[in-house]
Write a structure and sequence with these properties.
Main location: membrane
Strand content: 15-25%
Structural class: alpha+beta
Pfam family, one: OmpA
Oligomer: single chain
Subcellular location: Cell outer membrane
CATH superfamily of one domain: OmpA-like domain
Distance between the termini: 113 Å
InterPro entries: Bact_OuterMem_StrucFunc (IPR050330), OMP_bac (IPR006664), OmpA-like (IPR006665), OmpA-like_sf (IPR036737)
Shape: elongated
Number of helices: 8
CATH architecture of one domain: 2-Layer Sandwich
Largest sheet: 4 strands, mixed
Keywords: Cell outer membrane, Membrane, Signal
Helix content: 40-55%
Strand order of the largest sheet: 1-4-2-3
CATH topology of one domain: 60s Ribosomal Protein L30, Chain: A
Length: 222
């Protein structure tokens, strides 16, 4: 009886090992020591830790959240059009005003379409819409170099799942993507000053000079 149980246990072990050989999972029984090699993400953990310790990752996330909360990040388009209408222009002016507050920050514009038309045509249309937004922002004081990339998602990321015309799918989305390289305040690690600049400035009190003839704020009179 005992011999039979031993044979069953051995057979079970062999079957388990054989099963492991048919998968990509790591097995110390079938592979040499150290055989588990990363799948292309080597160095990501170190980079992530560096960004967390320096504060860059946290502050970029905070800025992205602030932008999405304080400014509409999306505009919409008419069917088969990349023209920026008055409603869209009003939103983009608000985006430009917000972006000008943070000269250290880069942005990316994503273009989208609805599902009407071919994939190739919609990809090009999404790119035209993103290009139109970049031109508009550039004309309103935003350096083209700060608009990190113009990306077309075409019809691949609809908000509304439909094959019909859908205005909500015909859109561009502006997002915070990171900091401008070699910017002085970024090199100095002053991320908190970037993110909370308006908060810090709100604490600055105007200088008041009091004299015999009364008080003057900011400067004396002749």
């Amino acid at each position: 009886m005992k011999a039979t149980l031993i044979k069953i246990a051995l057979l079970g072990s062999v079957a388990a090992i054989a099963g492991c050989e048919g998968t990509d999972s790591y097995s110390s029984f079938t592979r040499e020591a150290g055989a588990l090699v990363g799948g292309g993400d080597f160095g990501n953990a170190t980079m992530n830790n560096t960004m967390i310790l320096s504060g860059e990752k946290t502050y970029v996330t905070n800025l992205a959240n602030r932008f999405a909360e304080e400014v509409p990040s999306t505009i919409n388009f008419e069917f088969n059009s990349a023209r920026i209408d008055p409603d869209a222009a009003a939103i983009l002016r608000r985006q430009a005003d917000w972006i000008r507050q943070f000269p250290e920050v880069r942005f990316r514009v994503y273009g989208h379409t609805d599902a009407v038309g071919s994939n190739q045509y919609n990809y090009r249309l999404g790119k035209r819409r993103a290009d139109a937004v970049v031109r508009f922002l550039s004309q309103h004081g935003i350096s083209r170099s700060r608009l990190e990339a113009v990306v077309s998602q075409g019809e691949t990321q609809p908000l509304v799942m439909t094959e019909a015309r859908e205005r909500r799918n015909r859109r561009t989305v502006t997002e915070v993507t990171g900091f401008v390289r070699r910017h002085p305040s970024v090199l100095d690690g002053k991320y908190a000053q970037i993110v909370y600049r308006d908060y810090v400035e709100s604490a600055v009190v105007a200088t008041t000079l009091t004299g015999i003839e009364g008080s003057v704020t900011g400067a004396s009179s002749d």
